[in-house]
Automatic annotation (TrEMBL):
It comes from Streptomyces viridochromogenes Tue57. GO terms for cellular component: cytosol. Keywords: Lipoprotein. This is Putative Lipoprotein. InterPro entries: Nucleoside_phosphorylase_d, Nucleoside_phosphorylase_sf. Residues 31-173 form the Nucleoside phosphorylase domain.
Length: 213
């Protein structure tokens, strides 16, 4: 009898300590293989360095990569605690198509019932977006912005062909701008949502990556 191939690992990348804490506080059961939660640090350069380093190391070379954490919503009507599933990520370095977005939307609706899930392009920035910049980015077709997802996924696919995705929780929106994450109701709402998304991530991982018969 041949030995079945080992499950492909999953790398979940986030930037902030509060995001990592939310993910570690979530449901850790049901993973389809080894899972690593990586705190990259804040900003695209930190994300690029961290993801490139980890994927070059032992055990994670072929990992699927999912970028997550908080984001700023760009479209009117978005609220803190809404979810964004990226169809693609964009930044000046390039555009990366995401895999399994329909599955993620379905599983997030199951994991976090009652929360609105938005799909569309997720754009990258090297600074916090406010005011007119938000409208300018919306005019490009993007629905949300953060500082690490695009750099994370671009670094991941440059390191080798693999499934990638990005799921973000809106903490800041046109009508709900925050000064500091976690100090206002919107930040707390987003934290609770992020703590609940792991089952959807694990289902994405299982469905896309486990060997099929």
């Amino acid at each position: 009898m041949s030995t079945p191939p080992a499950p492909v690992p999953l790398l979940i990348a986030c930037a902030l300590g509060i995001e990592q804490f939310a993910l570690r506080a979530g449901d850790s059961g049901g993973a389809g293989g080894p899972v690593t939660v990586l705190r990259t640090g804040m900003g695209p350069k930190a994300a690029e360095r961290s993801v490139t380093r980890v994927l070059a190391g032992p055990g994670l070379g072929g990992a699927a990569v999912l970028a997550t954490g908080f984001c700023a919503g760009l479209a009117p009507g978005m609220h803190p605690g809404d979810l964004v599933v990226a169809e693609e990520t964009r930044d000046p370095g390039g555009t990366v198509a995401c895999v399994g977005t329909d599955l993620l939307v379905k599983e997030l609706a199951r994991a976090v019932p009652g929360r609105t899930v938005h799909t569309g392009p997720l754009t990258g920035s090297d600074h916090v977006i406010r005011g007119q910049e938000r409208s300018d980015l919306l005019s490009t077709g993007a629905i949300a912005v953060d500082m690490e997802s695009a750099a994370t996924l671009l670094s991941a696919v440059r390191a080798g062909e693999r499934p990638v995705a990005a799921v973000r929780v809106v903490v800041d929106a046109p009508e709900h701008e925050l000064v500091r994450i976690g100090t206002l109701r919107g930040g707390i709402s987003a934290f609770r949502v992020l703590r609940s998304v792991l089952p959807a991530f694990y289902e994405w991982h299982r469905s896309l990556l486990l060997p099929r018969r």
